[in-house]
Design brief:
The structure is a single chain. Helix content is 14%, strand content 45%. The protein has 105 residues and is mostly beta strands. The chain has two domains: 55 residues, Roll (SH3 type barrels); 32 residues, no CATH class. The protein has a five-stranded antiparallel β-sheet with strand order 4-3-2-1-5, with no helix packed on it. The radius of gyration is 19 Å and the shape is elongated. The two termini are 32 Å apart.
Length: 105
């Protein structure tokens, strides 16, 4: 379900898909994926609206995607044996994400 949310960071209304809802001091806070900017953002519940039908027909400017057959790896250090091996990881680490973004630039 696509909604229209006001992003405080971008200072504009944009389309978003709600990822999760978190209770906040003065209401609820929603973690949203902004489909036109390909970024995640937190939005207060008072800043969410149901879009008009014509607004949902506009194609997204950004799409979520992943690299085909590319799995995250990490460096496993064994201080007892004084070795380092690359092995599988559950998620990408910050250094790998940073390096990949630099390659894209």
């Amino acid at each position: 379900q696509v909604y229209v949310v006001f992003s405080e960071e971008l200072k504009c209304w944009c389309r978003a898909v709600v990822q999760s809802v978190k209770r906040h001091m003065d209401g609820y806070q929603l973690r949203c994926f902004l489909v036109d900017y390909a970024k995640y953002s937190f939005v207060e519940s008072k800043n969410i609206r149901v879009p008009v039908k014509e607004f949902t027909k506009i194609p997204y400017r950004a799409k979520k995607c992943s690299l085909y057959c590319t799995k995250p790896v990490t460096l496993h250090l064994d201080f007892c044996e004084n070795t380092a091996k690359i092995g599988p990881a559950k998620r990408w680490d910050a250094a790998a994400i940073h390096h990949f973004r630099n390659l894209l630039k």
